[in-house]
Write a structure and sequence with these properties.
Layout: H1 9-16, H2 20-27, H3 38-50, H4 57-64, E1 69-74, H5 80-95, E2 99-104, H6 109-121, E3 126-129, H7 137-143, E4 148-151, E5 162-165, H8 167-182, E6 186-190, H9 196-211, E7 221-223, H10 228-241, E8 249-252, H11 255-267, E9 276-280, E10 294-297, H12 300-315, E11 324-327, E12 330-332
Helix pairs in contact: 1-2, 1-3, 5-12, 8-9, 10-11
Length: 339
């Protein structure tokens, strides 16, 4: 089968009855600068539209030393929070004429390095990263060549630009409310402590108990990764440990862990449990389950908006007024609605 050829500026010029130089100026948005007649512009544009002509992004990149491509590295596209952030960020990029390339690290530093190298090899103008790494040495070296913005996760004590949520404060507020009814008998399922969200959410759990007049006990705290299967396994192990009984109260540090817990309860016919269940991260499906689950909703749209704005300024060589943005999540109270 013969390979189809894309229409060229020379061919558009021929069909429109103008010179190649005139067609090039019009199709590259410089007609006003060179005072090209409106009728000529219309004729050229009609031919271009008829043949679905699009200017070469590669040629534009060579002229402007920009690829108009950004890289986004997240752990997992099935994570509802990251999927929401990605959706809003992609919309901003699309409207600005920027192509967003999305890659997943699976929370594995080795895979993360591979996808970052791949994005850089594609000449991205900047990287927005929800990193699984423990230090920012690699990203500092990259930042010397192209902008890097940390998203949702703070790498160690990194001073690289970032946009994250204040997980500690809001978690403390919710756990304090739980402790008013259940004391310190609140189990906690969290993610790997190498990740900043895990540390911040655990710190919020401990702070909430302290404000309620209790101290956290290690026997109530369990950690694994943020996959739903981990929530299921943690719940199964805890019920076995409690002799078949469910805990009085449980806080899960992510919706993915809660997903595993709910699957366990559903499979074992225990969705009518009086257990107090709360979680970090929100999802509209929580309004559809019989359990009244209070949740912490991150402002995914605001996280995306600020990440886009920050990266756009950095790519243009501007110095942002604030390179460390910490946004407040909000508690979605479901128990109080039915009180």
């Amino acid at each position: 089968m013969e390979k189809k050829k894309r229409i060229t500026i020379a061919r558009i010029a021929e069909l429109a009855g103008v010179s190649k130089a005139t067609a090039s100026l019009v199709l590259n948005g410089r007609s006003a600068e060179y005072r090209i007649a409106d009728e000529t512009c219309r004729r050229i544009q009609e031919v271009a539209n008829a043949y679905h002509y699009q200017p070469s992004i590669h040629a534009r990149a060579l002229r402007e030393t920009r690829s108009y491509t950004w890289g986004l590295v997240i752990p997992d596209l099935t994570n509802f929070g990251f999927a929401q952030i990605s959706r809003h960020l992609e919309a901003h990029c699309r409207e600005a004429g920027i192509q967003l390339l999305i890659a997943c690290s699976e929370d594995d530093p080795t895979i993360e390095q591979q996808v970052v190298d791949s994005l850089i090899s594609r000449q991205v103008d900047g990287l927005i990263v929800a990193s699984s790494t423990h230090n920012d040495e690699i990203y500092c070296r990259i930042h010397d060549q192209l902008p890097v913005v940390q998203l949702d996760r703070h790498i160690g004590e990194s001073h690289l630009p970032m946009v994250i949520s204040d997980a500690c404060k809001v978690t403390a507020e919710l756990v304090q409310a739980m402790a008013a009814e259940h004391g310190n008998r609140i189990y906690y399922f969290g993610g790997l402590l190498d990740l900043s969200p895990s540390r911040h959410r655990l710190a919020g759990y401990e702070l909430g108990l302290h404000r309620a007049g209790f101290e956290a006990e290690t026997r109530y705290v369990r950690h694994r990764d943020y996959q739903p299967r981990s929530g299921y396994q943690l719940m199964s192990e805890l019920v076995d440990e409690l002799g078949g009984e469910l805990p009085e109260a449980l806080f899960t540090a992510s919706f993915t862990l809660l997903e595993g817990v709910l699957r366990y309860l559903n499979e074992h016919g225990r969705m009518d449990t009086p257990m107090r269940l709360c979680t970090f991260d929100d999802h509209y499906l929580l309004d559809c389950v019989p359990l009244r689950i209070d949740s912490i909703a991150q402002d995914c749209e605001a996280l995306a908006n600020h990440a886009f704005s920050l990266m756009e300024q950095l790519v243009r060589g501007r110095t942002p007024d604030n390179i460390a943005l910490v946004l407040p999540p909000a508690i979605h109270w479901r128990t109080r609605k039915h009180a």
